[in-house]
Automatic annotation (TrEMBL):
Protein's cellular compartments: Cytoplasm, Cytoskeleton, Microtubule organizing center, Centrosome
GO CC list: centrosome; SCF ubiquitin ligase complex
Pathway: Protein modification; protein ubiquitination
Subunit-structure text: Part of the SCF (SKP1-CUL1-F-box) E3 ubiquitin-protein ligase complex SCF(FBXL7) composed of CUL1, SKP1, RBX1 and FBXL7. Interacts with AURKA; interaction takes place during mitosis but not in interphase. Interacts with BIRC5; this interaction allows BIRC5 to be polyubiquitinated by the SCF(FBXL7) E3 ubiquitin-protein ligase complex.
Keyword Repeat among record annotations: yes
PROSITE patterns listed in its UniProt record: FBOX
A single GO BP: cell division
UniProt protein name: F-box/LRR-repeat protein 7
Compositional bias annotation for Polar residues: 1-13
Spans annotated as Disordered: 1-38
Keywords, in A-Z order: Cell cycle, Cell division, Cytoplasm, Cytoskeleton, Leucine-rich repeat, Mitosis, Repeat, Ubl conjugation pathway
Length: 449
């Protein structure tokens, strides 16, 4: 950070973008980053802008034809920026070293609405500090153009790096730090407190994160400061193993605008946590509690309070859910489009019947590893859910070719069918292929190809 180059207008060196056998920085469309391999780690490097002219005693004078302006230099700035927006990181940085005009275009704010960093060896904290400092050049200490930061699988990201983002990027709308297990509640608190426009937050795999709120004190955790609420609508807390009902209660009280919530493998969540959730977050459209083994039919009764707002529900491998829970969902959530109930062994043909007759607009259904579902349930499903596009019956021991034929004869728009480990004949699979020509069949029958 004390390098002389840090005190000048600068751009990443193209020679230091991707060191050999190192993942380097990556960016989405309209963004770029850089990296260098130093002592076994990857860090952000910057250099001063290129000179306006290059002189060297060994350089021969160019011919008259070579002195003519290149065709690409005749393009206006907005066209050049549009071209640059499609370039990968290393090429964009190389373009920044061509001449002063290209340097200025490469650092145009429109190309820096997104920063994307990936790789386990990257010194992310320093990289974020370098990049935000450069982007704050025109507006000291504040980066107004940056709206998205995606840092996936960067295990060296710490609370210090997130604090840099929180301090410098008040217009941040999307933050993804999946797999960064060194992140704690303190860092998340800084971000949600200083970035009021944040709508999308992905902390999946951040096992230390147990709460998201605007207050630090436990005694006022359910009372946001000055009545303020967190504007997050999309929250992914997959694999946040330490999250408990109390933490979910706090999250619900502070994030009342949630529409998408994913709690996959949050194994400590129970029906009580879902009850808290339904009290505050009444606008949820998509919800996943897959592998939450303590969620039961009582939890389904709470989720059913979302009624017609619920479109996506995943309860995979929730072994305590039976036909009773499915009946709650079917009765009140009539506009459900997606249901993943794989591994819920308590679901039978009766549960499928409730679902088919009440959720007729269902498009995707996964009832794999439900051994009590048979051809009878498939027949009712096929006669009521004509819009079905994806159906998974993997390892359903009671399913036969007769049930598949009924589905194929009624669900012409079927695009994916999974019958792996099912005892179905080749003739039945061929029947499905004839009637559902766009359907991709996943199977384990070596005689069918």
């Amino acid at each position: 950070d004390s390098d002389l180059s840090m005190r000048t207008l600068s751009t990443p060196s193209p020679a230091l973008i991707f060191p050999p056998n190192s993942p380097g920085f990556q960016n989405g469309r309209g963004s770029s980053t850089s990296s260098s391999s130093v002592t076994g780690e990857t860090v952000a490097m910057v250099h001063s802008p290129p000179p306006t002219r290059l002189t060297h005693p060994l350089i021969r004078l160019a011919s008259k034809h070579q002195k003519e302006q290149a065709n690409i230099d005749r393009l206006p700035d907005h066209s050049m920026i549009q071209i640059f927006s499609f370039l990968p990181t290393n090429q964009l940085c190389r373009c920044a070293r061509v001449c002063r005009r290209w340097y200025n275009l490469a650092w145009d704010p429109r190309l820096w609405r997104t920063i994307r960093l990936t790789g386990e060896t990257i010194n992310v904290d320093r990289a974020l500090k370098v990049l935000t400092r450069r982007l704050c050049q025109d507006t000291p200490n504040v980066c107004l153009m940056l709206e998205t930061v995606i840092v996936s699988g960067c295990r060296r990201l710490t609370d210090r790096g997130l604090y840099t983002i929180a301090q410098c990027c008040p217009e941040l709308r999307r933050l993804e730090v999946s797999g960064c297990y060194n992140i704690s509640n303190e860092a998340v608190f800084d971000v949600v407190s200083l970035c009021p426009n944040l709508e999308h937050l992905d902390v999946s795999g951040c096992s230390k994160v147990t709460c998201i709120s605007l207050t630090r004190e436990a005694s006022i955790k359910l009372s946001p400061l000055h009545g303020k609420q967190i504007s997050i609508r999309y929250l992914d807390m997959t694999d946040c193993f330490v999250l408990e009902d109390e933490g979910l209660h706090t999250i619900a009280a502070h994030c009342t605008q949630l529409t998408h919530l994913y709690l996959r493998r949050c194994v400590r969540i129970t029906d009580e946590g879902l009850r808290y959730l339904m009290i505050y977050c009444t606008s949820i459209k998509e919800l996943s509690v897959s592998d939450c083994r303590f969620v039961s039919d009582f939890g389904m009764r709470e989720i059913a309070k979302l009624e017609s707002r619920l479109r996506y529900l995943s309860i995979a491998h929730c072994g305590r859910i039976t036909d009773v829970g499915i009946r709650y969902i079917a009765k009140y959530c009539s506009k459900l489009r997606y249901l993943n109930a794989r591994g819920c062994e308590g679901i039978t043909d009766h549960g499928v019947e409730y679902l088919a007759k009440n959720c007729t607009k269902l498009k995707s259904l996964d009832i794999g590893k439900c051994p009590l579902v048979s051809d009878t349930g498939l027949e009712v499903l096929a006669l009521n859910c004509f819009n079905l596009k994806r159906l998974s019956l993997k390892s359903c021991e009671s399913i036969t070719g007769q049930g598949l034929q009924i589905v194929a004869a009624n669900c012409f728009d079927l695009q994916m069918l999974n019958v792996q480990d099912c005892e179905v004949s080749v003739d039945a699979l061929r029947f499905v292929k004839r009637h559902c020509k766009r359907c991709i069949i996943e199977h384990t029958n070596p005689a069918f190809f």
